[in-house]
Amino acid sequence: MKTKLQTLRFKEGVEMKHGHFEPHIAAIFQAALRTAPLMEDGCVWVTQAHRNIRDTLDFHELTAAIDFRCKSIVSQTGDVVSQGELWADRMSTRLGPDYDCIAHGSGDNFHLHVEFDPR
User: Fold this and answer.
1) Which of 5, 41, 44, 51 is the most buried (most CB within 10 A)?
2) Rounded Cα gap, residues 77 and 23, in angstroms
3) HSE-CB for 81 with a 13 A CA cutoff
4) What would the pLDDT profile of 80-116 be if each residue is shown by its tens digit?
5) Sheet with 111-116: strands ordered across
6) Cα dist. 73→48, 53, 89, 114 in Å?
């Protein structure tokens, strides 16, 4: 049975640093749980928090970005991309202008990227 989300889970290997527990990042986790669509397993999955620097510095290295899995979104039409984009819109509305919420990627890598980026 599919249930409304209540659980936040972390993909194996996700690294959390002290900065991920600051209120402005904790707000991302809260918004994800409150705005997420129905998921196959009833869980919101964090797939990336901190990561080492790639080609260019990004907000993951600064402990200011979180990625969430979209591939387990339940969609009656099978359109997970549209559901992921709507989730990004709901999170953006909830979090406000200091956050960027972007649904991107393709196939199993389609995910929601949320970063704290005050202007």
Assistant:
1) 44
2) 36
3) 5
4) 999 999 999 999 999 999 999 999 999 999 999 999 9
5) 7-10, 43-48, 65-69, 111-116, 99-104
6) 17, 29, 15, 17
Partners of 102 in the beta sheet? 113
Domains of the chain, start order: 8-116 (3.30.1240)
Identify the bridge partners of residue 104 per DSSP, sorted by sequence position: 111
CA gap 74, 59 in Å, rounded: 29
Amino acid at 38: L
Residue 67 to residue 113: CA distance in whole angstroms: 4
Question: What are the tokens at 3?
Answer: 């249930």
Which residues are CB-contacts of 57 (< 8 A; sequence separation ≥ 6)?
none
Q: How far apart are CA 58 and CA 41, in angstroms?
A: 30
DSSP H or E segment with residue 104: strand 99-104
Q: Are 50 and 63 in contact (CB under 8 A)?
A: yes
For 14-64, what is each residue's pLDDT tens digit?
Answer: 999 999 999 999 999 999 999 999 998 889 999 999 987 766 667 888 889
